[in-house]
Amino acid sequence: METQKFEIISAKSNIDWVGRKVTGAHNGTIAIKEGSLNFADGQLADGKFTIDTTSIKILDVTDPATNAQFAGHLASDDFFNSDNYPEAQFVITAISKESNDTYRIIGNLTIKGITHPVSFDAQVTTTADIVSATGKVVVDRTKYGMRFRSGNFFKDLGDTLIYNDFDLNVNITAKAV
């Protein structure tokens, strides 16, 4: 069995996030700090990556003061608590190949020291020395202690309610080592 390891290129990898509320949505990016994908006989076999929670950026709020306030709130204990948990991690626990370049990925996502399983489909393409992978992970923030303005925990929020699920659109580029 031939195995090959690919190290994630942080500068060419990131996560686009989308969070929704009753009155609209916000979006931004968060950096992938490091990680790797491993292949066995040309098929994705396992992998993991570390997310830099201190790198959260908001792209749709253009006023600098409002953007800074919002970024500070996302970094606070109401959300990612980036001072105490500067990293989140995803570790693949199971993989099934769905088609030529589509895999069903199951893994453990750890945010704020809390781990839960997540699953998603990923498009994975390989050349001799480069892997590109994309996938959309839907995360229930309340499972990770992010209860701020959640309808599951607070009543009468009206149009200040923030939906529990947020999307992480993961884009990874990795190079053979």
UniProtKB/TrEMBL annotation:
This is YceI family protein. Residues 5-175 form the Lipid/polyisoprenoid-binding YceI-like domain. It comes from Mucilaginibacter rubeus. InterPro entries: Lipid/polyisoprenoid-bd_YceI, TTHA0802/YceI-like_sf. It comes from the Bacteria.
